[in-house]
Amino acid sequence: MPQLTNQRPTRHLGAGMTMAVVVGLFAYGGYLLDDWTGLQPLFVLLGVLLGGVGGFLHVVSVTSPELLPFKADRKSPGTTPDTDPPDNPDSPPKGPDS
């Protein structure tokens, strides 16, 4: 079976599916709140709006994170956590109390 060298289509499909699920769950939660409070279209519309915004931000963060106005702290798959930079060989050695 051939190996996929480019994982972008799979990531994009996953981001789109996540957006659809988030919008659906928020809309369903809004439907339940509307049924409980009697304010029929209010919470469904709010749920769709909030789910759409959250889903859209997720799609953008997966497909083009450089477009976001804030920096995501997530690491790409396969990266290692940051470590302390190596000591400068010209600096004096650190003692046990430093």
Brief account:
The chain is mainly alpha-helical. It has two helices and no strands.
Structural write-up:
This protein has two helices and no strands. Helix 1 (8-37) packs antiparallel against helix 2. It is elongated, with a radius of gyration of 23 Å. It has 98 residues and is mostly helical. Helix content is 53%, strand content 0%.
End-to-end Cα distance:
55 Å
Helicity level:
40-55%
Task: Please state the average pLDDT score.
Answer: 79
Query: Could you give a short account of the major beta sheet?
Result: none
Strand element count: 0
**What ranges have pLDDT less than 50 throughout 5 or more consecutive residues?**
none
Approximate shape: elongated
Task: Work out the helix count.
Answer: 2
- Specify Rg, calculated over alpha carbons: 23 Å
What structural class results from the helix and strand content? mainly alpha
Bin the strand percentage: under 5%
Order of helices and strands: HH
